[in-house]
Queue: 2 jobs
Job 1
Amino acid sequence: MKNVAKALLGAVSMLAVTVAAPAMAEPKAEVLHYWTSGGEAKAVQALQEAFKARGGTWVDAPVAGGGGDAQAAVLRARVLAGDPPAAVQIKGPNIQEWAEAGALGDLNAVAEAQDWDKVLPETIQNIVKYDGQYVAVPVNVHRVDWIWANPEVLAKVGADVPKTWDEFNETAEKLKAAGIIPLAHGGQPWQDATVFETVVLGVGGIDFYQKALVDLDMEALGSDTMVKVFDQMRKMRGYVDPDFPGRDWNLATAMVMRGEAAMQIMGDWAKGEFAAAGLEPGKDYICASTPSDGGYLLNSDSFAMFNVSGDDNVEGQALLAELILGTDFQETFNLYKGSIPARTDVPRGEFDACAIKSMDDMVAAAEGGTLMGSMAHEIAQAGAIRGAFIDVVTAHFNSDMSSTEATEKLVKAIKLAM
Ligand code: BGC
């Protein structure tokens, strides 16, 4: 009898175990992203490996095309077809738009477990929260207003990295006269817009950037200052080589590496390319912020988790979120990517001088009120407004349109898009 009871008890407890712990779903995630260049691929590979190491099945869905415009079209089509990917690399107001449309799941459980409210700066929290809930997980902070320079090439004309826009023009003229391409640039609309916003920040000033690109103040948009910004853009057009149309940003970075061009204006994903090529800052290349009065143009990548069915997907999303904001992963990923961690408590020891400058400048800019969201990289604006800016900037850059005409067109385009 005793034995029967024992056997029964055993069976019951086995049953209890089975009931209490149903077979765990295996984490799975289809990840839509546009990280396909050398440094980007290494960074996303690190995430993939961490996910796999925890038993996850990663379904890779890369869409080549810097700045993410090609990916945005794919995402819209997938959501419309009722088949969204589980995790998507989106950012800024796009996150709010998708959340408002009811497309995103919340990440509050992971956020609470990892205390995101404590470890993320408020600027970043505001980007990835909708209605007080975390709906995306931030990966990094990328700074946009950088000059990447080849010191040997600059030395050929006895120049250092320019500290003012006048100096930039003087150096560029000297380089041109010496038969050197001053500015490595890829003629794609988002790259034109990247250069444009650094000019708005430096030539127009911080308040002007805020009014024109963030607040969409019509007076600022149509002002003489904007005319001056387009004048500088016209000069910049004269500093790029004739083969620039359509060139990918990483190929422009390679021109600086090879000494074919002196400088590139690009966010610090360019540093990921230098790092992937084994080059060292301060020695093989120089990073300097584009001339401005203490400004910092902020861009931050994040992954939003779209509403998808299936326990495996839900587990995959939670696992991804947990991994992405883990301290170790924040270090590994950002060392490859050229960015700095989204978390404020990651040890600085492994990061290079450019990253440390970015960290310090970001804190100083936040304190001084000079931390601005990037328009070109979808933090200050997204959707139709960003599109309107980019259309006019590109139309001006690729034609002989006057600065006055460009300014008038900009006012009209933004009014229409609002
Ligand atoms: C993204 C970066 C990316 C770059 C080039 C930026 O908008 O934030 O993560 O590396 O575009 O594609």
Job 2
Amino acid sequence: MDRYAVVGHPVSHSLSPRIHAIFARATGEALEYSVLEAPLDGFDSAMREFFASGARGANVTLPFKVEGLAFAHSASERAKIAGAANFLAARDGRIEADNTDGAGLVADLERNARFSIRGRRILMMGAGGAARGVVAPLLAQAPALLVVANRTPDRARELVGRFESLGPVRAADLASVPREGFDLVLNATSTSVHGEALALPREALSRNALAYDMAYGKSAQAFVAAARASGFRACDGLGMLVEQAAESFELWRGRRPATAPVLEELGPLRA
Ligand code: ATR
């Protein structure tokens, strides 16, 4: 049976095996998808061993996405732009990298959250790896403005510099977010994952704004609850996880699984 895994550290909590098992059942594809915890300093050797044993592909999660890109023989344009890969596939003895995170976020916003990005004003909080992976796919949907606000403003400026040619993107200091009436605020910082609270810059948002945490489940609970308490519509990133998984599944198997049944089944886990 074709073998796949999600590789991370820690990774035991990952929902990816469950998601791919549902996809496999629904599409009738015979595959096995497990978790693989690589040592923090041992991603390369774990991956070499994994693929040498005949495995077909892997999803790469924290903290290995940058190493995932470096590990591959070749990479898609979107993975190169992101500087990170969450997807590896073995093809003809070579490892190919891709990044399906941005496509997952866009699909979740557009399809599941019914938020149309075109012409809207987006505030992204955070300028680390998670943020970098989704900037180009967001700009490809032609928002009116994308502001990247970071605690360390220099890092936001550095990130914005990489994407300026792709659309209207600007950097800002998270401590003084411009009041631009944002329609969407994305939490792309690592605060939720680390169990820290991140304040919502309420004055910078439009009254109908959607607050979206790219983390999911318990991690995203504090941010989502605070946004709702302030009267905003809010959701976690479970849909992004499921949509990036569907994109990965299609790249591996050539078949697009439906995501709605998975979201329904995992719904109780949502923040
Ligand atoms: P990831 O791959 O999860 O994005 P990262 O590359 O280490 O992780 O980036 C973490 C991001 O979360 C950064 O934007 C970081 O801000 P700094 O660049 O100023 O460090 C942001 N972040 C982490 N903790 C934060 C906090 N308590 N408040 C605000 N931003 C925080």
